[in-house]
Structure formats: structure tokens, C-alpha cells
Design brief:
It is built from 6 helices and 4 strands. By secondary structure, the protein is mostly helical. It has a single domain, classed as Orthogonal Bundle (Recoverin, domain 1). The strands form 2 sheets. Strands 1-2 form a two-stranded antiparallel sheet. Strands 3-4 form a two-stranded antiparallel sheet. The longest helix is centred in the first third of the chain and has 17 residues.
Length: 87
């Protein structure tokens, strides 16, 4: 394998890993004043917060159904960002 092919393969690999990075809203204080880390709530790393995962944060869990605007059963980064804008 020539050098150019190796460099191209490495570049493709590195760029692919950034495509899977999650873009969670920045950490924010919940109503209890506790900082919420959405990345830590996403235990399975799928980029969404399920109803089960949301139970780790009582204030998020309490508002889960209202925040789940597309009624998918999970909160997307878009839905979480909308929560941040409402504050």
C-alpha cells in the first residue's frame, strides 16, 4: 500500500470519528441548582436521552413528556436545546 493511500485511509478514519460525536447542549443548572450533564445521562451513547436514562435527573424526568415534542420516547439534542432556550 502506498503512502498516499495510507494517508487517505487515516484521514477518512479520523473524520468519521468526529461525525459520531454528540452535540449536547452545554451543561446547565436544573431547577434544583444542580448541574446537568446530558452526555452522562446518555448511558448507551445513542445521542438521545431515553425516559429510563432521564430518571437520573428528577427535574428532566418530570418534564420528559412535555419535552419529547416528537413523541419518540427519547429526547434528541434538538429537544434538549429547546429546553435550554426556555430558561
Amino acid at each position: 500500500m502506498n503512502t498516499l493511500t495510507k494517508v487517505a485511509a487515516l484521514a477518512a478514519l479520523l473524520s468519521a470519528t468526529t461525525a459520531f460525536a454528540q452535540d449536547y447542549p452545554s451543561n446547565a443548572s436544573s431547577e434544583t441548582g444542580k448541574s446537568v450533564d446530558y452526555a452522562k445521562l446518555d448511558k448507551n451513547g445513542d445521542g438521545n436521552i431515553s425516559k429510563e436514562e432521564a430518571k437520573a435527573d428528577p427535574s428532566l424526568s418530570a418534564k420528559f413528556d412535555a419535552l419529547d415534542t416528537d413523541k419518540s420516547g427519547s429526547l434528541s439534542t434538538t429537544e434538549l436545546s429547546a429546553k435550554m432556550k426556555d430558561k
